[in-house]
Amino acid sequence: MSNLSFPRPRQSEVGERLRTEVREFLDDFDWRGDPHAASAFGGFDPEFSEALGARGWIGMGFPKSYGGGGYGLVERYAVLEELLAARAPISAHSVADRQSGQLLLRFGSERQREEILPGIAAGKSYFCIGMSEPDSGSDLASVRTRATKVDGGWLVNGAKIWTTNAHRSHYMILLCRTSPSSQERHAGLSQFLVDMKTPGIVCRPIVNIAGVEDFNEVHLQDAFLPDEALIGVEGDGWKQVTSELAFERSGPERFLSHLSVLEEFVRVLKSQPSAVGTRALGRLVAHLVTLRRMSRSVATMIADGQDAALHAALVKDLGTCFEQEIPEILRLALQAEPDPHAADSYRAALAYVVLNAPSCTIRGGTKEVLRSIVAKGLGLR
User: Fold this and answer.
1) Which residues pair with 195 in a beta bridge?
2) Which of 313, 311, 304, 379 has its CA nearest to residue 1?
3) Distance of CA 307 to CAs 72, 105, 189, 282, 364, Å?
4) If the chain, 381 residues long, is cut into consecutive pieces of 10 residues, what is the mean pLDDT of each piece?
5) What is the set of domains in the chain, with CATH numbers?
């Protein structure tokens, strides 16, 4: 059985200084966010994204030659954590900043990096993720979207689902099959940089239970992608996408999505103290602190160039469990019915969380797939 350990997170004086700067920026900038937003990213606000880009707080790990801040991933983590804690509206640029830019930096061609990374760093280029498919879900090895080689490029046919902000994104990182499947399920997959204005691409919105239209089903019918759209090496898509998922699965958005309802719970508990409420809060805070420690450890591993896919999957699974147990624990600890239209801010925040908690399972992979990854990594299967 493999050993699994989470190294001590790296401390950064620069990161702690940036925390103060971010808090001052949020106090001074006239931004509008939903104070009870259950989304991990607080809202879609292009003006806010561009303001962050102007401060060098997007693409922080990019080299300065590509418009980045020249910081490390540990410093980026500090900035992101502050933004998430404030429910700042960073949804527009979040995917590009978190993983798409990092993928292009690692596997993209020089042309792709020069053309795309500066726009991401400026907060003006938005990305969506073309991984999950209808009837496949988190089983990425079973994708059926196919890219067929033609003169000068590829013709793509297939569909993607749960594609957040696809209707507002400029680009998609698309995972599809470029050669027939073999006994090795992970073989024959490739990634492409897709301009969302490409003819043959249609986005169909999916309205979630909370009434929010951020998910999409994306259909590609004879969509032509030029040769230079290929990211990395043809057939290396599985290796590339698993490295990308380490960024998606391990960040602070995996345990801070529902921080607003915890803050509201503390406010109510101060005026209505109870032993049950105190125990519930202690349990949740203990889980929160532990997840934060693990998440920061993964950020350190990635910054050091280590393979953190297994660790990231574990953080994502535990984070999903934590965020989905929050409304259940709080409802038992305090007699208050959730109501999104309530004047009471606690009941409104609780309603947002109850309606959005199911989506935590979709983001970054289902529990079943994540636990399969962990079991395989530990030599248990």
Assistant:
1) 171
2) 379
3) 17, 17, 20, 33, 17
4) 79 93 91 57 87 95 91 91 91 94 95 97 96 76 90 97 93 92 73 98 88 88 98 92 79 86 92 93 95 93 86 90 91 87 89 83 76 84 75
5) 13-125 (1.10.540.10), 130-236 (2.40.110.10), 251-377 (1.20.140.10)
